[in-house]
């Protein structure tokens, strides 16, 4: 957690602790400062040995239960550490933050917003912009979503994010929530799954003596906000009343200049039974698509997951997973989590062999052919394939020839002899070309960029 966030979380937890713990424990609670909250473990520091001991001995379970409740994480744990200096420093730091916050009267708002969001939204802490790996397939969606978070209701309203399951729609959408919560805490954000909205609407619109009251509460809940995030709108049922309600919510927010963000696994026109009125509303802002990530992005996502965990791994293992799980990020993460779990249990490094032994993907993927490599390289340098294969001497052709040879060796399991046969050159000539590029890459950025681009065009990492 970032320090501001941790502070807020701790303040909220402290408030609860004061409620549940007997008064005699309060003097030990007040001086505690939160140090870290990592993987569900909250570490708090105190400058009082006695405070540490008493809280540990007499109130461990009450604190733990409260922590679990506030964090909504059953796996939570906490540690109290005695460290006079650290406590002093942390306190200074936290006072600085608190001061800033209260100066702008933000704290109150932030707390209000935080508890509001937590109770109403179940935002996943992982779904932040910082944790989103950007690549070709999601660059546009990322940029636009970020811009909506930075300047809501200015340019893209409504924002309609669509794409198949598991490509990061919910992640990006919730990132707007997190961003707003911590950078613009005065704004009220509400994240809602469409099915929850529908259920909420149905239960409140039921005939009862409180119906009018319930409906006006319901309307306030969804329209008295600055940013609404509605996830998976394709689940809107074909009921006229529900559609009317969504339309009412939409219009009321839109007319007040509030930001609306919607996700869907398909474009509005393909959502069954969607009223024409709603369809045209969803289409009137910006629609942006998420497509399946390319192999490089998949690799980068895995690299982030692997680096963030304490696992030892090799890039080869990650490349293997990236190559074999192509459809969406959820599957990719699933495969990674599986090998990670086994690697941890067996205390093994995540090597290529290990990944293969667990995932057992069909590895008969056809190897890149020399023809394909020469074709893409020729295209890149804008020279003729026959010139590369022949003896033409121009500078561009020579580099293209060397590059093509280099890649033929790097990207296939073929021997120099096989490559020499293909190019109809001497074995030593081929080795020279290979070594030359290999050496020059280290010192010539244009050359390493060329390798990267050609590899990308060949769809390899
Ligand atoms: P969707 O809502 O489109 O079905 P999600 O947003 O739930 O997909 O994403 C599925 C999983 O993949 C989540 O765990 C999410 O964090 C992860 N994910 C998707 N795209 C990315 C990305 N570009 N970088 C990091 N993680 C991602
Ligand atoms: Mg989703």
Write a structural description.
The model has no long low-confidence stretch (mean pLDDT 88). The chain contains 21 helices and eight strands. Strands 5-6-7-4-8 form a five-stranded parallel sheet, with helices on both faces. The two termini are 32 Å apart. The protein has helices at 3-20, 26-29, 49-71, 84-103, 106-121, 139-150, 169-183, 194-205, 211-223, 240-255, 276-283, 295-308, 315-324, 329-345, 352-359, 370-381, 385-389, 395-411, 416-423, 427-443, 445-457; strands at residues 33-38, 41-46, 77-82, 159-162, 189-193, 227-231, 259-264, 286-289. The longest helix is centred in the N-terminal third of the chain and has 23 residues, at 49-71. The chain is of the alpha/beta class. The structure holds adenosine-5'-diphosphate and magnesium ion. The site of magnesium ion has 4 residues, from helix 7.
Précis, in short:
This protein has 461 residues and is of the alpha/beta class.
Strand order of the largest sheet: 5-6-7-4-8
In this structure, how is the largest beta sheet organized? Answer: 5 strands, parallel
Bound molecules: adenosine-5'-diphosphate, magnesium ion
Question: Count of DSSP helices?
Answer: 21
Mean pLDDT: 88
Low-confidence stretches: none
Structural class: alpha/beta
Which sequence of SSEs, written as H and E, runs from N to C? Answer: HHEEHEHHHEHEHHEHEHEHHHHHHHHHH
Strand content: 5-15%
Number of strands: 8
Helix content: 55-70%
Radius of gyration: 29 Å
What are the SSEs and their pairings?
Elements: H1 3-20, H2 26-29, E1 33-38, E2 41-46, H3 49-71, E3 77-82, H4 84-103, H5 106-121, H6 139-150, E4 159-162, H7 169-183, E5 189-193, H8 194-205, H9 211-223, E6 227-231, H10 240-255, E7 259-264, H11 276-283, E8 286-289, H12 295-308, H13 315-324, H14 329-345, H15 352-359, H16 370-381, H17 385-389, H18 395-411, H19 416-423, H20 427-443, H21 445-457
Parallel strand pairs: 2-3, 4-7, 4-8, 5-6, 6-7
Antiparallel strand pairs: 1-2
This protein binds adenosine-5'-diphosphate and magnesium ion.
Magnesium ion (MG) is lined by residues 169-170, 231-232.
């Amino acid at each position: 957690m970032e320090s501001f966030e941790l502070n807020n979380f701790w303040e909220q937890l402290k408030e609860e602790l004061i409620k549940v713990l007997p008064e005699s424990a309060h003097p030990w609670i007040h001086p505690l400062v939160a140090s870290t909250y990592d993987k569900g473990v909250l570490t708090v520091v105190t400058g009082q040995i006695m405070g540490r001991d008493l809280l540990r001995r007499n109130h461990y379970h009450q604190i733990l239960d409260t922590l679990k409740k506030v964090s909504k994480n059953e796996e939570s744990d906490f540690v109290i550490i005695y460290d006079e200096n650290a406590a002093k420093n942390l306190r200074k730091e936290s006072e600085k933050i608190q001061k800033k916050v209260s100066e702008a009267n933000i704290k109150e708002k932030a707390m209000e917003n935080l508890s509001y969001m937590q109770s109403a939204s179940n935002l996943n802490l992982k779904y932040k912009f910082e944790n989103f790996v950007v690549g070709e397939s999601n660059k546009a969606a990322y940029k636009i979503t970020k811009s909506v978070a930075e300047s809501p209701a200015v340019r893209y309203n409504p924002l309609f994010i669509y794409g198949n399951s598991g490509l990061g729609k919910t992640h990006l959408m919730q990132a707007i929530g997190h961003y707003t919560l911590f950078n613009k805490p005065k704004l009220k954000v509400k994240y809602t799954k469409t099915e929850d909205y529908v259920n909420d609407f149905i239960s409140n619109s039921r005939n009862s003596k409180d119906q009018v009251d319930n409906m006006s509460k319901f309307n306030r809940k969804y329209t008295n906000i600055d940013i609404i995030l509605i996830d998976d709108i394709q689940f809107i049922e074909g009921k006229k009343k529900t559609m009317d309600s969504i339309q009412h919510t939409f219009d009321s927010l839109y007319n007040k200049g509030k930001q609306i963000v919607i996700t869907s696994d398909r474009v509005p026109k393909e959502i069954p039974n969607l009223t024409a009125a709603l369809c045209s509303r969803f289409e009137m802002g910006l629609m942006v698509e998420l497509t399946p990530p390319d192999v490089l992005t998949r690799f980068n996502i895995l690299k982030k997951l692997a680096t963030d965990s304490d696992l030892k791994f090799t890039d080869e293992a990650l490349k293997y997973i990236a190559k074999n799980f192509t459809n969406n990020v959820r599957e990719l993460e699933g495969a990674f989590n599986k090998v990670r779990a086994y690697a941890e249990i067996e205390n093994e490094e995540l090597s290529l062999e290990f990944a293969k032994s667990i995932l057992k993907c069909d590895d008969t993927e056809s190897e890149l052919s020399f023809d394909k490599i020469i074709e893409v390289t020729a295209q890149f340098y804008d020279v003729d394939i026959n010139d590369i294969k022949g003896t033409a001497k121009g500078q561009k052709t020579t580099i293209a020839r060397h590059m093509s040879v280099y890649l033929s060796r790097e990207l296939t399991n073929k021997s120099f002899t096989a490559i020499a046969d293909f190019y109809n050159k001497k074995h030593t000539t081929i080795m020279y070309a290979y070594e030359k590029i290999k050496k020059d890459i280290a010192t010539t950025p244009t050359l390493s960029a060329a390798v990267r681009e050609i590899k990308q065009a060949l769809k390899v990492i």
